[in-house]
Amino acid sequence: MLSSDFANLASEAERMLNCGADWLHMDIMDGHFVPNLTIGAPVIESLRKHTKAYLDCHLMVTNPLDYVEPLGKAGASGFTFHVEASRENWRELIQRIKSKGMRPGVALNPGTPIEEVYPLVEFENPVEMVLVLTVEPGFGGQKFMADMMDKVKTLRKKYPSLDIEVDGGLGPSTIDMAASAGANCIVAGSSVFGAPEPSHIISLMRRSVEECQKNN
Ligand SMILES: O=C(CO)[C@H](O)[C@H](O)COP(=O)(O)O
Ligand SMILES: [Fe+2]
């Protein structure tokens, strides 16, 4: 939703769901972890009044723990925090996210090695999704970093049933790389909102993921 018209968020959300989106990806940025500031719990709470959709919150914030309670109350569905922002407290974070009824995920920046997320996936109370950033976090509309696909391949080999989300620069020209590497949750902002027919882009990307899953 980062590429949506924020002044018309509810109708933009409905439009994307009508175009076939499964989830709404909500980029929460604090102007500190990343050099951009977007939305927080009050906006999630307002949007929740207009939709029952899965709100997939991606927290690009320095103190994710501070957001658990407000986002839980606001009606967030998924809570994906950054491994770079939770090296001291990820165990507590996962536990608190689950206790608020949200689904925990962990994200990693392009410069962070994939090994850093293994303990969170293998923990007795694990994260349920890994988000591999395929651009530097902070802004939509950037170029897809194909070299991040090695991370996706490594994760898929190690964890065959894990939800692996790719985020940044996904669209018709990059989806096959991500899908064949093993990603099964696709975030796309500018390619979808910038298309004359967003539904065509969404179904093209869904087909690519389904084809790759069939062949594996
Ligand atoms: O987390 C993000 C940026 O930090 C966004 O979710 C991502 O960039 C999606 O936008 P686009 O598809 O335009 O790249
Ligand atoms: Fe994101």
From TrEMBL:
Record keywords:
Carbohydrate metabolism, Cobalt, Isomerase, Manganese, Metal-binding, Zinc
According to UniProt, the name of this protein is Ribulose-phosphate 3-epimerase
> What NCBIfam families does this protein map onto?
PRK05581.1-4 (NF004076), rpe (TIGR01163)
Q: Which reactions are catalysed by this chain?
A: D-ribulose 5-phosphate = D-xylulose 5-phosphate
Q: Name one GO molecular function term.
A: metal ion binding
Which residues does the entry assign to the active site, renumbered to this chain?
Answer: D27 (proton acceptor), D167 (proton donor)
Name one matching Pfam family. Answer: Ribul_P_3_epim
User: Gene3D superfamilies annotated for this entry?
Assistant: Aldolase class I
The UniProt entry's GO biological process terms, in alphabetical order, are:
carbohydrate metabolic process; pentose-phosphate shunt
Q: Which domain of life is it from?
A: Eukaryota
Family annotation (InterPro entries): Aldolase_TIM, Ribul_P_3_epim, Ribul_P_3_epim-like, RibuloseP-bd_barrel
Co-factor requirement:
a divalent metal cation; Zn(2+); Mn(2+); Co(2+)
Q: Which family does it belong to?
A: Belongs to the ribulose-phosphate 3-epimerase family.
Q: What Enzyme Commission number(s) apply to this enzyme?
A: 5.1.3.1
Which residues are involved in binding a divalent metal cation? H25, D27, H58, D167
Q: Where does substrate bind?
A: H58, G138, F139, G140, G141, G169, G189, S190
Recorded source organism is Hevea brasiliensis
Which note does the record give on the cofactor? Binds 1 divalent metal cation per subunit.
